[in-house]
User: What shape does this take?
Amino acid sequence: MSETWNNRTKLVHGGTRRSQYNEVSEAIFLTQGFVYDTAEQAEARFIETGPDEFIYARYGNPTVAMFEDRIAMLEGAEDAFATASGMAAVSGALTSILKAGDHVVSAKALFGSCLYILENVLTRYGVEVTFVDGTDLDQWRSAMRPDTKAVFFESMSNPTLEVINIAAVSCIAHEFGATVVVDNVFSTPVFSKAIEQGADVVIYSATKHIDGQGRVLGGVVLGTKDYIRGTLEPYMKHTGGSLSPFNAWTLLKGLETIDLRVKAQAETALQIAEALEGHAVLERIIYPGLKGHAQHALVQSQLGGRGGTVLSLDLKGGKDAAFRFLNALTIPVISNNLGDAKSIATHPATTTHQRLSDELKDELGITPGLVRFSVGLEDGNDLVADLKQALAAAQA
Assistant: This one.
């Protein structure tokens, strides 16, 4: 029956497990272990666990399993493994499939912590990484080698919002037998169907849109059952990156409203982008939903025409102007998260991407004047008015 449900129904009811009390809201199972009726039952469970059998919270938990089942239903994946954070998901997904001597091809436009995993962690253990312009399919093809084990990219890059062609990159990678690992946070599971488009492994920082209200950390990796249970789960359960039951419960509540929230946020993001396009204080405005965006046509096919919930404003006058703008805002908050019910403004060059060299920042377009703006659930007209007065203050 659940296979015929539409997304909003899946997001409310998918994966529900009720206890003997038949509670309406999902139960939080705050326990680190589980009791066996007999020694024989304990022995059997350590050999093979059934879908509703658990051993230890680091290996699995009923509340966590509900979250995993629900997000897998939404994504159209066979299975999922929930992690303690988005970066636990990124590092686990990559490290579990790689070994010394393997080669990885990655887009170079990445969140700073993702770049650290590729540049500093994987290479330390003998993995070779080649970086390419993610929007250039010729560079992807030229970088592939017989020993390329995986490709990695953000489907929409942070913070310059380049959109990478999932289907085309996947086709190239699969010709070489490489696993396609996609960080799909900015595209969201509501707008993007990365697995249908060719991705083998999809990653979300559940801290962002899935929670949507700035409460907890969490992450999730999605893929085939063979990969999730045969490759990823053994790595994660022995290295300790599992999600807590309380956080899983909070994320379940977030999933109930994610469809409504991100569609409203994307609508407001487009309203803001159209209202500010061509503003005299701006060098440029970056929003994939605008017709002038370099990958606008791809957005129509890959994201159903939705430009996402984040836009970036590049102010004339560099860091000083950006700081004046940020300090003049009255509705959005200055923070480094995104996908929240509250609008959030971030200065990537001095926060989320500050560890990058000036040369790499220039190459990626992370200028001193760039401000990433995550659109919340406030009234669109109020946000436009506030952003315009802050831009006026930036000219002072």
About this structure: The two ends are 60 Å apart (CA to CA). The mean pLDDT is 95. The chain has 14 helices and twelve strands. The chain has two domains: 2-254, 259-394.
